[in-house]
Amino acid sequence: MSARSHTRRDPADQAKPAAIEIQLPWWAIALPAIAFAALLLLILNPADAHAASSEPAVSDLLERFRALLRIAA
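-> structure tokens emitted (73 positions)
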């Protein structure tokens, strides 16, 4: 089996930097921009951010579980 021989390139071609072209899909730019804008709007208008006024869901779930154990026992 014979090995491939490397051909020599023209020295003038080696001096030129290789141009690399990168193409991104439209959503690779649009989605981060939309997410940034949404987070920026949340920071600028904190009056819309309301804390939950109801009881936490975990404690409600535990109370129902306790009630179930009382009924089953």
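Helices lie at 11-15, 26-44, 57-72.
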